[in-house]
Amino acid sequence: MGVIISLIVTVLENLNGFLKTDKEIIKMAKTFKANRFQILTKIVLPANISTFINSLKVNIGLSLVGVISGEFLVSKAGLGYLIVYGGQVFKLDLVMTSVIILGIVAGIMYGGVLLLEKFILKSRTS
Is 82 within 8 Å of 98 (Cβ atoms)? Predict the structure, then answer.
């Protein structure tokens, strides 16, 4: 479920970024006889690195929502199961602990994407 939610948003966001690539640069590359693969690898992909990073940032939250909602429905273990079980037996500590763990995991994953972004942008400028 998490993959389906993330995939739709990623495809649409990256398509929008590809379509907004500067048409003049693509036209210039075509005048120098660049083929489609060269245009993709040398112009379109480097111009959309920030779009890829932004879609990763958005997908962290979306994938966690998808996984937890899937666990709500069919799981016998996991954080989603603990949230549902804690709500059913009125154990707020289970619910809140699970939500705090989810927040920590999301923060760590977001921090990893920020480090990846810094690394890519640093290597791109040098």
Answer: yes
Dihedral of CA atoms 112, 114, 117, 119 in degrees, nearest 10, equals -70
Phi and psi torsions of 69, nearest 5°? -70, -35
Higher pLDDT, 1 or 90: 90
pTM of the model: 0.74
Residue type at 20 in one-letter notation? K
Instruction: With beta carbons less than 8 A apart as the criterion, state whether 110 and 102 touch.
Output: no
What is the domain range of residue 62? 2-125
DSSP string, 36-68: HHHHIIIIIHHHTHHHHHHHHHHHHHHHHHHHH
Annotate 74-109 with b (16+ C-beta within 10 A) or e (fewer).
Answer: ebeeebbbbbbbbeeeeeeebbeebeeebeeeeeeb
Res. 2 pLDDT band, cuts 50 70 90: low
State in Å, rounded, how far the first CA of the chain is from the last one.
Answer: 40
